[in-house]
Amino acid sequence: MEKSGYAYRGSSVGGNRRYSDAGRRKRVTYTRQYDFALLFLTIGIALFGVIMIYSAGVYTAALKNNPFRYVKTQMFCLVIGTAVMVMVSMFDYQVLMQKIFHTRFTLVHLLYVVAMFFQGIVLFIGEEYNGAKRWLKLGPLQFQPSEISKIAAILFISYAVYMRRRDLDSIAGFIRVLIYMSPLIGLILLENLSSAIIVSGITFGMCFIASKKKGYFLVIILAACAGLAAVLLLGEGFRIERVMIWLDVENHPKAFQIRQGLYAISSGGLFGKGLGQSMQKLGFIPEAYNDMIFSVICEELGVVGAFLVILAFLALFWRIVVVACHAPDLFGTMLCVGVMIQLAIQVIINIAVVTNSMPSTGIPLPLISYGGTSAIIIMAEMGIVLGVSRQIKQK
Hints:
By secondary structure, the chain is mainly α. It has one domain (35-394). It is built from twelve helices and nine strands. It has helices at 36-63, 69-90, 107-125, 145-163, 171-189, 193-210, 217-234, 237-247, 256-268, 293-325, 330-354, 372-389; strands at residues 2-3, 6-7, 9-11, 17-19, 29-30, 127-129, 132-138, 141-143, 393-394. The strands form four sheets. The chain has a three-stranded antiparallel sheet with strand order 6-7-8. Strands 1-2 form a two-stranded antiparallel ribbon. Strand 6 (127-129) and strand 7 form a beta hairpin. Helix 7 packs across helix 8 (237-247), helix 10 runs antiparallel to helix 11 and helix 11 (330-354) packs antiparallel against helix 12 (372-389). The longest helix has 33 residues, at 293-325.
């Protein structure tokens, strides 16, 4: 913030605390430019994803008489996503908190309602895929409402924390946030456990970061574990079956995909077989270009290649943390925190599933796995973070 042309610096995590240095007053200006390291990391990971999608999916695409089928679709969506990222980054993110027509509702509330609407109608008119209705088709446009719900959750919780952060110092404040988020999470859970886990993780993680008192979160973790166990045991049979597959991947008749993925990882060795040289993608790993793409990365690029991919994500997270720590207000900080938590959850769960470190669930590797809706939404989220970085003040 500026006052009389002089610098007043604030703490974005603890609130809008300001102070001035009477002896060394310096003018401050907005950078009005992107965090280029974050921008290049985002685009770099996305382009690497295109290369791996071509390598992992060329066999399957060739069987459909179009070797570039998946690459063309992914590139098209990334171009749209990049345009969306740039446009979103040009807007002042604080506009999201402005009231609509002098009411108590903001754009944050509007997006939350839109997400609820899409999650509701997908249960009735959604396109069924692998036994679940997760896709909405509006003319030529097809998308997963759960992707919109993720960004809606980040915006809503960021606003809630900004307005009443101190409430989160007690379990009552967290329960209040959870009450607001429960309808959205519940609708997602009806058809998409993996996305419900992500939105729940975003809710828990953002509130944990915002709270100054962490003790009560231990109780919440225990309750969440009990709730997840109840969903697995009392829910549909295929969910408990995935646990049984995880426990006996070598012998279970339905563990074929995970087993083939492990074969791919083990055969890659330290440096891999070389780009494009995977054998497991030749019909052994179903949809190798999608959720199981990390196994192809391990087979073709080896442990070194897999480590570099993880390192690239860690660098991306670090840049988001840097932007969050220097954001001009708590709302901007929490937006960055929410985006980082979502991406981190997806990276951790995807790699854990591929390496059979946890039961199988359909979560793609961000910006690398094939998926147009996911790519566009993630690029939009990165646009929000870049928009926050444009508001950072420099001495």
